[in-house]
Write a structure and sequence with these properties.
With 245 residues, this protein is an alpha+beta fold. It contains five helices and nine strands. Strands 7-8-9 form a three-stranded mixed beta sheet. Strands 1-2 form a two-stranded antiparallel ribbon. It is elongated and about 90 Å long. It starts with 23 loop residues before the first strand and ends with a strand. The relative contact order is 0.09.
Length: 245
Amino acid sequence: MNSDPDSPGRSPVPSANDATVPLTKERNDATVPLTQEPTDPAQQGPPEHDAPPPNLTAEKHDGRHRNHRPWSVRRIPAALVAAVILVLAVGALVDVIAVRAGHPAAAWRRHLADALATRPVDDVWMLVGAGVAAVVGVWLVVLALTPGLRHWLPLRSHADGPRLRAFLNRDGAADLLRDAAMRVPGVSKARIRVRRHRVKARADVRFRDLQQVRDDLTAVLDDESERLALAHPPRIGVRVRRRTD
């Protein structure tokens, strides 16, 4: 009845009921070992850390987005054209309704119809009217195809950040460039005019050599123009003159 103290609680000898389970799995009556054969390294793709970086050239251009000038809403021209069309349409509609109701046509419509029917094509008033209509049409086409707001300069935005659209007023850019020009030794007065593609700088020099002042002023204006981060960096032209009074 006493158990052997050296024997473990479970006999190391397997019993008849304990079956040895091989490391195999049966599928479709075939024994498939649960071992994975090493694949051919040549068939594997390159490791993740060896993958070439994505081509960011198409998405970035020197790390910056290129912005364009904003488009004007053209409120005043649109209001003028809408008002003229509305007045003409309402007047013609009222006259047509009056004629349909049995009243005679308006005097202005009868006069206009008679003039268009009797005046020749080379008549002065016909030529003047055609010229005015052509000028107005060209003006409207130009307004439709051009952005306007020429007083605003678009700024750059970095490609790795959010796409933002910012603009700088020409007068503000001229003030910043003028402040930078006045920091150049020898410059007593500076006048800056900022255009879309060109900056004209004129400076009065009290002392120092004119060529040295011109070179320093050009370098300072180039640096300040780069700090402004304009989408289309303008060309800078510098003129200096000696002032002794």
